[in-house]
Amino acid sequence: MEYKDLNLLDEALGIHDNYKKEKPWPLCGRFVLVEDCVDTSGAFVLHHILKRSLSSHPSSALVFLAFSHPFSHYDRILRKLGCNLAAQRDNSRFFFIDMLMLQCPGGDEGKPNHDGLAGVFEKIERVISSLHQDNMKLVTIMIDDISFLEVAANGSSNDVLDFLHYCHTLTSECGCAFIALDHKDIYLNGERPAVILEMEYLADILVKAEPLATGLAKDVHGQLTVLDKEALHQRGISPIKVHNFHFKIKENSVEYFYPGTKI
To answer: What span, in angstroms and rounded, lies between the C-alpha atoms of 35 and 132?
Structure first.
């Protein structure tokens, strides 16, 4: 399984084929926030970045915090994309932290899970510190579902914000890439919580996976909008080009194409 028309998503993220001429991993030191909704999942964007991260450099490493699915789920998907996560794990390049266990209450019913999140961050730091200093900028930290963090923290938004801020500081302190997925339409009261507002503010690149404005279509499953804030700052008051294109998820591939170009 391989992604077709990679240039559209890669170019929007700044990881197109010419990136090796500039630096090993263009997302180093950057925070990419992927937002999706119930009707349109953005998980395939994480899979895409995961594969590209591990193939960007022989010394690259990825720390994956899994809230939604076990290791077998991601290993099966990435094998279809030509990436063997089990082999990468055995080679100490892929570090899978099963956050599903943190969602279950411990022996003390009243004990908050603050120590759990702190322990997870310590694991991330240990992975990074175990690498050669020159390879720290080749580390990617990925969270597959921010919305479950508050569950793991027993409803403490402050603990969630602290944890996410700690992860974000690694982009500046160590040059790591930080990638996270969140669901924007799970809050029934319509109010966007402080966690999401803060993450949108901190994000260097915001990727939105949304359904088509015109409704469902047979050959188009949704649209991606990618906003690179760094480009916005570089251009100052100049108009900012927002990357917008459609996608179709097939059984063994994902197609990316501009609106109106697919017949």
So the answer is: 33
